Known about the structure:
Structural class: alpha+beta
Helix content: 25-40%
Number of helices: 25
Strand content: 15-25%
Distance between the termini: 62 Å
Oligomer: single chain
Largest sheet: 7 strands, mixed
Radius of gyration: 28 Å
Shape: globular
Amino acid sequence: MSFIIRVNDRPFDAEPRAGQCLRTYLRERGWFGVKKGCDAGDCGACTVHVDGEPVHSCLYPAVRAQGRSVTTVEGLAAKDGELHPVQQRFLDAQGFQCGFCTAGFLMTTAALEEEKGSVHDDGKLDDLPRAFKGNICRCTGYRAIEDAVRGVRHTERPCAGKAVGKNLGAPAGPQVVTGTARYTFDVDVPGLLHMKLLRSPHPHARVVAIDTSAALRVPGVQAVLTHEDAPATLYSSARHEHPTEDPDDTRVLDDVVRYVGQRVAAVVADSEQAAEEGCRRIEVTYEQLPYVTDPEEAMRSGAPVVHAGKGPRERIARVENNVAGEVHGETGSVDDGFAEAAVVHEETFRTQRVQHASLETHGCVAYFEPKEDGGGERLTVRSSTQTPFLTRRALCALYGLPEDEVRVVAGRVGGGFGGKQEMLAEDIVTLAALKLRRPVKLEFTRAEQFYGATTRHPFTIRIKLGARADGTLTAIQMRVVSNTGAYGNHGPGVMFHSVGESFAIYRAPHKKVDAYAVYTNTVPSGAFRGYGLGQTTFAVESAMDEVARRLGMDPLAFREKNVIGPGDHMVTPIGHDDDLYIASYGLDQCLSVVRSAIAEDRSTEDVPEGWLTGQGSAMAMIATAPPNGHYADATVSLLADGTYDIAVGTAEFGNGTTTVHKQITAGALHTTVDRIAVRQSDTDVVRHDTGAFGSAGTVVAGKAVLLAADSLAGRLKTFAARYTGVPRHLCTLDAEAFDCAGRSVTLKELYEAAHAQGAQSELTADGYWGGSPRSVAFNAQWFRVAVDPQTGEMRILRSVHAADAGKVMNPLQCRGQVEGGVAQALGATLFETVRVDERGEVTTAAFRRYRLPQYADVPRTEVHFMETSDSTGPLGAKSMSESPFNPVAPAFANALFDATGIRFTELPVTRDRVWLAMNRQAAARRGETSL
């Protein structure tokens, strides 16, 4: 049977493989706008049109497309390049952040637009929750997507030198909406081999023997790698500027497995199918070992030791008690503080594992390229990473390679949220590439993201607060146990960070903490948005609400009475970082926004009869950059055509830093952003960049860009004065030229003059920032909720968020960061949880079992920015990527308490938990026994 399919009006006659889905068929033919997000029909990132009908191409057999016309996002635009109206609306509204899901939303919307007014129109465009039930976005919070569908334009075109503070669209926006933005795997590498991983079925076992002979006989299998092929070097998968922040407890491939899902062997083959079959043919003999999945049990004497044989040399605090790291401290005497309190409240709070669920999964491609000097080859690793430079450093240390022999580059990254501050694929792929001297690719499946990547740390927090009758706090005490899983990547750091700002935000003379990061035989935890503060803030802000109510005080007034103020020292029981201080203060404005929202609220007017309503708030503080140094180099240069180039190391994954860097440079050089190009996230571009984490993209990398741009402006002005013979103060720079006392000198002419005079150094300037000193940012969240006591159904009637972001560089993008943070936090508050069974095996390894927030789940959040300007940030800016997440869960829980009178102390607050608690409450009032 002859096979013919038309893709974007182009014929293809290659027959699909047996069982091949349409998604892989299209991508193999270069249509990279068709994304892989789940391969289960859950996320919609792979949506295409087949004869005008939207389908999830990951579920659609390619053979069914025989004789049909397929349109991908690349085929939406007109042949002359004019954007499809839906593409233009998404661009105007900036209905995306990382953009990995955008093609799916575009294709769904375009198909519904075609149906509008026809006999097939069933009103979905007027009912977006129903229209988008098959599409997921992890970044935006969906408001921007709705605005795009409705044709709301947000982007601006500021004049030269006036970009800062304006709503500029992302530079990659046109590529995102046309499907031409290149993510990690959107490349065609000749001779590419594919890797698949064999993973452990046991929570703790020793590998006694591995028989790979049958796997090597599978046609197409090129190699099978085991622990015998891997270096003995121990390291951490966590990426930090200082590797000593994490325990060295990991091997590329280990002869001891410590959780269900740990990699045991790697098969490299000509195709994914052959690699998968190779994994099935490997025979492993295990000696099963005792295991422990509960952190409290893990710390007890006699518990199975997860990392036997390691210890202080590997920077593990107490290996015999499975304690990866711990911190203890006290200021004053909490016993005295509680003794003088009129009210003392003590409670235990628990938070769950949460998956980052970035739609682009972990993975990388490693290949060899000729060196520029012609002297052999060097290794290039193209990775979905937030830390290209730190990953290169780690690979070089692991395999004994000089840094000039390795290049690490990130394309556009499809979401991160801290999960890609890890080295989870690059190490094993590099091992294979070095062994075979051929290109190798490893792309995690969605299931592997759940059991083979990392999660947010589950916390158990015992908190005790004391306050006088007038509402003055006397003491704060916390015992924190963090489950770091089988490996300690980020474990000590998350634990330490969780008990910093959460203590410091309130004044109290007596504070005490005991905190532990504990190994268990479960999927490893890692960096996640908020880096531990979201967990402890849930406990602190819930307890503050409870104490206020017991005192008969307004919870907001109780907070206002006890928060730190401008100029206050930030006191924690674990000490104070000398470089951290309040360089600007907007918390009072944040609380004022909440108070105004409460006063003006009318959202209860349409609540169904019999439903209960309540309101609640919470607040949080976060340092604007990580401690111990976060470094960024940047270079800004004038190019031959009179435009500019920025070279900066930080990665772009929807965080908006590329836009902000162009805005900063445009302001310093009095030009427009369209005259500035950006090269980024490539170890060839600049000397070093710690990475795109800790909300450092603006306050660290942006500061380096500002210093470079300011320096270049000064150099160009000096050279223009020398070139024209006009006093320097009479030379003025505009978008394309200098005006030197009435003489116009174009930037192109200036470039040529500098080269003619051998003064090329005047055309470029470097900037460096080390991330210190640091300031703090503040956030406050308020909810009005309604609850049906008969079913436990909860509705958010109103959501208000106040953000102290300093000088807001791009209100449109910053608003998107806040909305996305609130949406992600609501998922963690209401239903997201990575469940594990008694063996520690993940049982929710798919989106449909995990339950991500969809369009219908997320309310519109009213975002308010405070009027502050920070003395440490670039042009007064502060960070605002992580912090919006942190106050959401306690604000919701406080509103739920206000409605129901029940204090929920464990996340997620699912509908069934609410119904059961209300049922027990009602039964107790009747004197009965409940379910």
